[in-house]
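Protein ILRUN
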Amino acid sequence: MEGMDVDLDPELMQKFSCLGTTDKDVLISEFQRLLGFQLNPAGCAFFLDMTNWNLQAAIGAYYDFESPNISVPSMSFVEDVTIGEGESIPPDTQFVKTWRIQNSGAEVWPPGVCLKYVGGDQFGHVNMVMVRSLEPQEIADVSVQMCSPSRAGMYQGQWRMCTATGLYYGDVIWVILSVEVGGLLGVTQQLSSFETEFNTQPHRKGLHGPYPFGQS
């Protein structure tokens, strides 16, 4: 196909095109795997449905649609802002995970991009957060509200940027969490939140001047 630079094994394609299965979940799974998980299940279903659930035709339709018109955005992981290496958190504790990311490409990100949970441990109910369209080389912090598991141990989850059309792009970014009884991270974040809230309150002038709890 014109504009394509895709190395798909013809025998493999023939094998899957002759599956003869009517199981749509199987076809979606195989389509997603052949694309290297660049498209989410809903996007796979769109192209399969458009081609009457013919896997080979759906692959062709996908590359006809995506390759000439859409340049895949670029994203690089910069650093962990919270939950860095060596930090731990108590079980069943709310916390905020923040990553620093960069648009490492030459074009502004399209509207409607988001950061999505893609595998491993999810740490709560949030599985997607919207991200603003970054300018080329712009750096931004992205945060997700999470909750640690109830049992101590090491946990990890993976997240990726995704376009509004369901195309994943950029580095896989990780949450690697050490859950320990007596872990300090959750307490540190809670104290930081309390300090921010306290500092936004009007100062009360009293017998002890600026000291909120007096002097001994």
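thats it. The chain has a mean pLDDT of 77. The helical segments are 10-17, 24-34, 41-50, 55-69, 185-199. bye
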